[in-house]
């Protein structure tokens, strides 16, 4: 059993506090992704779990044992670095064998383990090459090979795909998900790319400014973002936020959107009252062209083929992005009326907290 | 592109390079010419650049004039090699510590090392003499090796430290996560990657050791058999005459090993001395 529990982890560098009281319970065999903008503390948190940094406060438990002061090897973790950190003077074989050589493992077993790892990662015919002779994707696989050869309980990945080009990144995402299934191990993965987070994670931790904004499954974060930050971070293109005024709170939330359109939204209204300013969040993919709705001036239209993304604004300064059908007849510089279904709307109060949706779709596993 | 020059600029650049090279190389050329001339020819007036009586006689006669010449050349190389080897033993761990570890007075001690470099050996000759005398090292090889090592360690640390700092920290972190100790990481990861840097430092130390031995030799050593070449060259200065041509020949033969080393390791030197100068 390799559960990973963080109890009130805080970290300061001098007077700068980069992590604030972070507590997480990661389950055995779970694939958890830490995601957030640069400087949110996600890499620092990973390094603390790895044992490369010491937490200023708090405890780390792996499989229920307190490992806060333990060496990385004794923690049972292994880590894949952003730069891969392959040893350029050693062959692929020796790179993968490195952790076992450190343990002074007996030759036969070492050879068997290295070959097994190479097999899983399709590196068998590359074992004699130096890292410099490999492509980016192959180097990535060697780095993973070095981390799996030791059979750790928890795998840590620090932005492993950020050095690869877009196409390869897509392939590696699939490979990593496959690897997770094959190895059946707990994995913690850090990225700033919400697509990687959405596609690979069992659960996502969204970090912002050294705090956990939300911890949940990808679809939970998509349909029920707890804060405006999470709503804006998860989903591509980003969610639109329309400043609105509360008209009434009985029988749903009645609001007047900027631009004059009025709607009644099925959300929890207990924390707002008449006259409050809220923000209505609408995902670009949740709008359709219609006859009644918000009036949007289209500045740029990107035709992707299957879909056309329109970038425009409401009333000149509230940016609004919409994902429309591929062959939609909209002109740049023109305007369009977009229909929004009340049940698709997210509402955030003045502090950025969500008013719980009451008509959201059921979550799929 | 930064290297687009007009023809005129190129001519100017080559002209300046030529002047610089002539300035640097002319002494060697003149040494060589002097070594070829018969002794009488050297004092002929007016100066005659070329004559028909040039010969390599000095290169064979010098071994007779100074019978211990071979020994002196060996001593020079032996002392320089010993200094280099011992210096490296101290420099490698120290430079690694300065590059990677945190400890009190790190910057202060590094500055002191640089400060030591500011003194030439000459200023410290008399105190050093006393130290070596009380340690009983006068008139031994150690008298020339120990001060040599002491003066070269700071340079070595400064050079190697900047090279080691360039090795990505993530490599060492990866080794640490995989359970390697500091020493294991140093041996298996850092040093193999630092080979070009080690060569640069080794050569720089060797050249330093070769250059500085004269002062230490004439001050701390009276034993003829232990003298290095620069001190041994004095024997070409006789009571009656100075055999300049043979002295020049001996000097050229003496610097030959260093020149050869330079030629072979030149590409490392150029890469190494500028390493860390710009952020890549």
From TrEMBL, chain A:
It comes from the Bacteria. Pfam families: ABC_tran, TOBE_2. The keyword Acetylation does not apply. Residues 4-234 form the ABC transporter domain. GO terms for molecular function: ABC-type maltose transporter activity; ATP binding; ATP hydrolysis activity. Keywords: ATP-binding, Nucleotide-binding, Transport. InterPro entries: AAA+_ATPase (IPR003593), ABC_transporter-like_ATP-bd (IPR003439), ABC_transporter-like_CS (IPR017871), ABC_transpr_MalK-like (IPR015855), ABC_transpr_MalK/UgpC-like (IPR047641), Mo/tungstate-bd_C_term_dom (IPR008995), NA-bd_OB-fold (IPR012340), P-loop_NTPase (IPR027417). GO terms for cellular component: ATP-binding cassette (ABC) transporter complex, substrate-binding subunit-containing; maltose transport complex. Belongs to the ABC transporter superfamily. This is ABC transporter ATP-binding protein. It comes from Halocynthiibacter halioticoli. The lineage of its organism: Bacteria, Pseudomonadati, Pseudomonadota, Alphaproteobacteria, Rhodobacterales.
TrEMBL record, chain B:
It is found in: Cell membrane. The chain crosses the membrane at residues 12-36, 72-98, 110-129, 141-160, 189-211, 247-265. It is a multi-pass membrane protein. Its main location: membrane. Pfam families: BPD_transp_1 (PF00528). It comes from the Bacteria. Residues 73-265 form the ABC transmembrane type-1 domain. Keywords: Cell membrane, Membrane, Transmembrane, Transmembrane helix, Transport. GO terms for cellular component: plasma membrane. GO terms for biological process: transmembrane transport. Belongs to the binding-protein-dependent transport system permease family. This is Carbohydrate ABC transporter permease.
């Amino acid at each position: 059993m390799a559960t990973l529990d963080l109890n009130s982890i805080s970290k300061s560098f001098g007077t700068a506090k980069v992590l604030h009281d972070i507590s997480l319970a990661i389950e055995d065999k779970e694939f958890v992704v830490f995601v957030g903008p640069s400087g949110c503390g996600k890499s620092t948190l990973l390094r603390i779990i790895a044992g490369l940094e010491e937490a200023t406060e708090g405890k780390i438990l792996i499989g229920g044992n307190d490992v806060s002061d333990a060496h990385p090897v004794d923690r049972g973790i292994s880590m894949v670095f952003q730069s891969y950190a392959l040893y350029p003077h050693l062959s692929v074989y020796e790179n993968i064998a490195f952790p076992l050589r450190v343990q002074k493992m007996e030759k036969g077993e070492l050879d068997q383990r290295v070959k097994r790892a190479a097999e899983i990662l399709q590196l068998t015919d590359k074992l004699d090459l130096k890292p410099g002779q490999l492509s980016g994707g192959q180097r990535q696989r060697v780095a993973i090979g070095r981390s799996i050869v030791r059979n750790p309980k928890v795998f840590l990945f620090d932005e492993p795909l950020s050095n690869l080009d877009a196409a390869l990144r897509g392939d590696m995402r699939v490979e990593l998900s496959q690897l997770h299934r094959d190895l059946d191990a707990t994995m913690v993965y850090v990225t700033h790319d919400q697509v990687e987070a959405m596609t690979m994670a069992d659960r996502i931790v969204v970090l912002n400014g050294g705090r956990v904004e939300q911890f949940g499954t990808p679809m939970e974060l998509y349909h029920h973002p707890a804060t405006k930050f999470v709503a804006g971070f998860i989903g591509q293109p980003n969610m639109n936020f329309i400043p609105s005024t509360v008209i009434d709170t009985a029988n749903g939330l009645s609001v007047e959107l900027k631009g004059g359109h009025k709607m009644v939204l099925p959300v929890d209204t207990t924390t707002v009252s008449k006259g409050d300013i809220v923000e209505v969040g609408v995902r670009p993919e949740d709008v359709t062209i219609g006859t009644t709705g918000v009036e949007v001036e289209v500045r740029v239209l990107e035709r992707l083929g299957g879909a056309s993304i329109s970038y425009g604004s409401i009333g000149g300064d509230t940016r609004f992005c919409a994902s429309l059908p591929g062959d939609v007849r909209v002109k740049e510089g023109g305007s369009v009326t977009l229909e929004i279904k009340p049940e698709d709307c997210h509402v955030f109060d003045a502090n950025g907290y969500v008013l719980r949706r009451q008509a959201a779709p059921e979550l799929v596993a | 592109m930064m290297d687009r020059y007009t023809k005129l600029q190129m001519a100017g650049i080559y002209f300046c390079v030529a002047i610089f090279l002539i300035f640097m190389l002319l002494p060697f050329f003149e040494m060589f010419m002097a070594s070829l001339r018969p002794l009488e020819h050297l004092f002929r007036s007016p100066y005659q650049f070329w004559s028909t009586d040039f010969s390599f006689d000095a290169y064979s006669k010098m071994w007779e004039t100074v019978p211990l010449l071979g020994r002196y050349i060996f001593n020079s190389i032996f002392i320089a090699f010993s200094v280099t080897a011992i210096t490296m033993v101290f420099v490698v761990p120290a430079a690694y510590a300065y590059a990677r570890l945190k400890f009190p007075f790190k910057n202060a001690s590094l500055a002191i090392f640089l400060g030591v470099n500011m003194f030439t050996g000459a200023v410290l000759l008399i105190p050093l003499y006393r130290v070596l005398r009380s340690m009983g090292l006068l008139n031994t090889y150690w008298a020339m090796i120990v001060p040599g090592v002491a003066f070269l360690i700071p340079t070595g640390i400064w050079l190697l430290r900047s090279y080691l700092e360039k090795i990505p920290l993530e490599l060492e972190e990866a080794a640490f996560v995989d359970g390697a100790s500091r020493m294991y990481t140093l041996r298996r990861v850092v040093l193999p990657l630092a080979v070009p840097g080690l060569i640069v430092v080794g050569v720089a130390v060797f050249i330093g050791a070769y250059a500085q031995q004269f002062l230490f030799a004439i001050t701390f050593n009276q034993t003829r058999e232990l003298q290095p070449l620069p001190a041994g060259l004095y024997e070409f200065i006789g009571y009656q005459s100075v055999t300049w041509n043979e002295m020049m020949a001996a000097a050229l033969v003496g610097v030959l090993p260093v020149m050869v080393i330079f030629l072979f390791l030149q590409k490392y030197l150029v890469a190494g001395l500028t390493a860390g100068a710009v952020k890549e």
